[in-house]
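for the recovery benchmark. tokens below, seq after
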């Protein structure tokens, strides 16, 4: 994707963005290597770590654990169906092209520091394998891969997409929860449109400064 962007004229800088200044005519981004980038519009998409200029009362951070089993017999379940438990502590499972089952969940909003999160990979993997055995007794539950990650989520389940209040020219895309694939695509469209001068009613529901009382309106 980056190569495609560069092919269309994008320039790529590898560095950590450490400060943002929107007080002038242009937005100024200071980098960890002491260089600065000036731009008319800046889009923040830094995952679960939001810079201080983005304040949200609905944002929260959560860790999630997942395993991939050894390849299963061909007919473990039909047509690559995705299983998603519609429960508060959800569990999801799907098959891969190589015939493995990926099963994940066991989320925690308390254990988000990478080291503490990764220390739990072994224990959480065992729990996920046992939950797979209960869900699908004919599945082989031998684990071949195990991992964990952290992501930003929101109390109302909608992402945070739009202008950053009080910082003209800065836009943000955060809080995708478990729907990063869908919401990131939507965020790209919405913010691209905003910069081009178009708007959308969705932006009210996704506003960075909405609060809990707006959930479920
Ligand atoms: C185990 C797990 C399973 C998941 N499964 C699914 C799924 O099945 N379907 C789905 O839709 N979503 C899923 N998600 C959620 C999805 O991964 C996230 O919503 C998505 O990755 C968020 O994308 P992002 O681009 O906003 O952030 P990220 O993918 O976190 O990328 C942010 C990037 O910004 C960089 N960065 C951070 N701070 C700075 C800085 N100051 N300067 C420069 N760079 C910076 C980071 O290094 C990182 O590369 C899952 C998440 C986890 C953890």
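predicted aa per position
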């Amino acid at each position: 994707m980056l190569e495609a962007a560069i092919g269309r004229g994008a320039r790529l800088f590898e560095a950590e963005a450490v400060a943002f200044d929107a007080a002038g005519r242009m937005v100024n981004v200071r980098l960890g290597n002491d260089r600065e980038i000036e731009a008319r519009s800046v889009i923040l998409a830094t995952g679960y770590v939001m810079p201080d200029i983005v304040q949200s009362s609905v944002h929260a951070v959560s860790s999630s654990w997942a395993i991939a089993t050894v390849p299963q017999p061909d007919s473990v379940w039909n047509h690559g169906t995705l299983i998603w438990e519609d429960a508060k502590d959800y569990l999801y499972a799907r098959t891969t092209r190589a015939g493995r089952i990926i099963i994940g969940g066991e989320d925690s909003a308390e254990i988000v520091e990478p080291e503490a999160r990764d220390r739990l990979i072994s224990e959480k993997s065992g729990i996920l394998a046992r939950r797979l055995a209960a869900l699908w007794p004919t599945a082989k539950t031998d684990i071949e891969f195990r991992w964990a990650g952290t992501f930003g989520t929101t109390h109302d389940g909608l992402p945070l997409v739009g202008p950053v209040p009080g910082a003209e020219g800065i836009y943000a895309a955060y809080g995708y929860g478990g729907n990063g694939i869908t919401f990131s695509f939507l965020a790209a469209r919405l913010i691209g449109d905003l910069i081009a001068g178009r708007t959308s009613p969705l932006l009210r529901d996704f506003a960075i400064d909405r609060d809990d009382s707006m959930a479920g309106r």
